[in-house]
Sequence to fold (157 residues):
Amino acid sequence: MNQLLQLLDTNARLTNAQLAAMLGRTEAEVQSQLSELEHSGVVRGYKAVINWEKTDREYVTALIELRVTPKRDSGFESIAEQVMQFDEVESVYLMSGGYDLAVTVCGRTFRDVALFVARRLSTLDSVISTATHFVLRRYKDNGTMLLGGEADMRGAQ
Fold:
């Protein structure tokens, strides 16, 4: 199972036939295992890594550090669930160290992101403080290098 997950993590576009050949299994076995992984929630989706700097889409990404007061019965879970409901939020992580939650937010402009943080995120009951860091350039995203020449996909087959 771990080998299948690693292959999908590297290249989710591999066909069941390609996965079966790489794993020494039948296509039916691979399809059955994929269905099980999807049904159990291990595989939550398939997504392309896009270098948005090469498109005409205007957007800004920010990493936001949140310090929060955990709830008595649910700890950090209830505040994380609140935060992840916002459309602007791409990811939410519980962290160790100087802050509690790391939140990735996208917006059209710096101002849009700043207003989202000021008006919606920082006003949540459990939020003690925020620190916003704007992403100026992506060099590597989700394990994929975005800087330099075109990716060599020969090893991903």
Summary: Strands lie at 60-68, 89-94, 101-107, 127-134, 140-141, 144-145. The chain has a mean pLDDT of 90.
